[in-house]
Each structure stands twice: as C-alpha cells, then as structure tokens.
Amino acid sequence: MLEKIFSPETYSMLGQWSFSFLKNLLVAILVYLIGSFIIKWLVKLATKMMEKSKVDHSLLTFVRSIIKVVCWLLLLIIIISILGIETSSFIALFASAGVAIGMALSGTLQNFAGGVMILLFKPFKVGDYIEAEGFAGTVKEIQIFNTIINTIDNQTVIIPNGGLSTGSLKNYTKEKYRRVDLDYRFAYGTDLDKVKAAIYEIQTSNPLIIQNAIEDSPVVAAPWLGITEFSETGVVVNTRTWCKTEDYWTVYFYMNDTVYQQLKDRGFMFPHKAVDVNVIK
C-alpha cells in the first residue's frame, strides 16, 4: 500500500498537479492585479462622467458602489475559474440570491429606479414647489428612495420616488413666469365698461405685473380682462395677469384686495346668491 502511495507515478502526478496549480495561481494573481487596476480606472471614469453631467451626489455615490460590487464579483468568478474550481454553482447561487432579493425588495427597487430617474432627468429640484400624490409643498430633499417636501403649514411629507417618477406631477416653479387667473362677478345692469376700466387700471399700476409680451417667453402677454360667463348671480369678468413665479401670491392677493376695495368704494356691487320668494294670498 505504501509502495503505491510513494511510487514514482504518484510523485510525477503530484509534481504535475503542483506545477499546474502554481501556474494557475500566478495567472490568478496577475489577473487580480490587472483586474483591480481596471476596476479602479472604471470607477474613476464613471465618477468623472457623472460629475461632468452634474449628477446628484447621493446618486453618484450609490452608482459608484454598485459598479465596484459588480466588477469585484465578476473578477472573483474569473479568478475562481482560473484556479480550476467549478464556477457554475457560484453563478447559480448568485443568480438565485439576486432573484430572491429582487422579489423581496420589489417595492424598494421601484422607488430606487424612480429616484434614479428623478435625479437624472430632474423634473423638479430642491426648492421647487410641486404637487403630486395628493400633497403639495416645497421640495426639501431628494433621496435615492424618497423625496421629502414641506407643506405650506410646515408639515414634512415623505413621498416614495416610485410614484413620483411614474405619476402626474405639477411643478409650479419650473417656469420663470406664471399667470394669475381671477374671476369677479358683478350684478346685471352694472356698467361693465367702467368696471373693466377700473380693473385694468389696477392691473397696470403694480410694478410686479408684467405689462408687455416677453420675447423669451412667447406665452407671456400684457394684462387682459373680459366677460367669460353669464351666471345665475351676475356677469363674470375674468382677469389674466402675468408675473414672475416668485411674485405669484403677492400679485394674487393684491388683485383680490385692491379690486374689492376700489370697486366697492366706487359704488359697484358684488352680488351674492339670492332666492326670490313670491307669496300668493
């Protein structure tokens, strides 16, 4: 038995195996050194490209870590294969683990994908006033999985990015200019020429209101007003007034306060809904 174990053939096979393993080990070390250099170069290249594209820092950090993990896993599988170890079981294990994790985190992955889309395409940014998912407020922070907004009464709302990226969204501060649309009702028989002249004077007396069309914004126009409806309670005069987005609420309240006060002082009546009752004896 011992003679077979220590026979020349055994020494020859052991020598061949040792030589083959040593050769594979040296190749694996060489592949590791070259692979680690390539991984570092890829990470730096991806970082520079994202920084040049002004990608959000939180997304940049996350994507960089994903690139590192994926590249190192690939390098590990290649090194194991070079050493002569069967890699099919490792690949099957990684695949099954990936499927299980993906199913368990399906909602989270949807929010992650939504966060990536928001940070890349920028439908809104920090500081914008938006309305989405039944909430309205100023964007305080855009994270990978959620967006945090502050409502006008200073409540903090956390909205998952999955719904934000696929649903309808209003961004009130995306454009430089906004139009203030307001309706005013006057009793039938009112001298509407005088009413329109008084309101137009109010529209043209505030420096925050844009008085002429702007070349870089074709939709922006001078103040306008006209009759838009004959309602049960009176004639409806609609006013359309343009201003800068940050002045919207100032102009909104200015128009309402000034129109009511000045037209009331001039004797114009704002009607209210009334019911006529005829009593028959």
Descriptive notes:
By secondary structure, this protein is α+β, with helices and mostly antiparallel strands. It has 8 helices and 8 strands. The strands form 2 sheets. Strands 4-3-2-1-5 form a 5-stranded antiparallel β-sheet. A 3-stranded antiparallel β-sheet has the order 6-8-7, covered by helices on one side. Helix 2 packs antiparallel against helix 3. The longest helix is centred in the N-terminal third of the chain and has 45 residues. The termini are far apart.
Helices and strands in order:
Blueprint: H1 2-5, H2 8-52, H3 57-82, H4 88-104, H5 106-121, E1 129-132, E2 135-142, E3 146-150, E4 156-160, H6 161-166, E5 169-171, E6 177-186, H7 192-203, E7 224-230, E8 235-244, H8 248-265
Antiparallel strand pairs: 1-2, 1-5, 2-3, 3-4, 6-8, 7-8
Order of helices and strands: HHHHHEEEEHEEHEEH
Poorly predicted segments? none
Q: What is the number of E strands?
A: 8
Give, in spatial order, the strands making up the sheet with the most strands: 4-3-2-1-5
Biggest sheet layout: 5 strands, antiparallel
Tally of helical runs: 8
- Indicate the proportion of strand residues: 15-25%
The residue fraction in helices comes out at 40-55%
Quote the average pLDDT: 82
Dominant shape: elongated
Structural class by helix and strand composition = alpha+beta
Rg, please?
A: 36 Å
Roughly how many Å apart are the termini?
133 Å
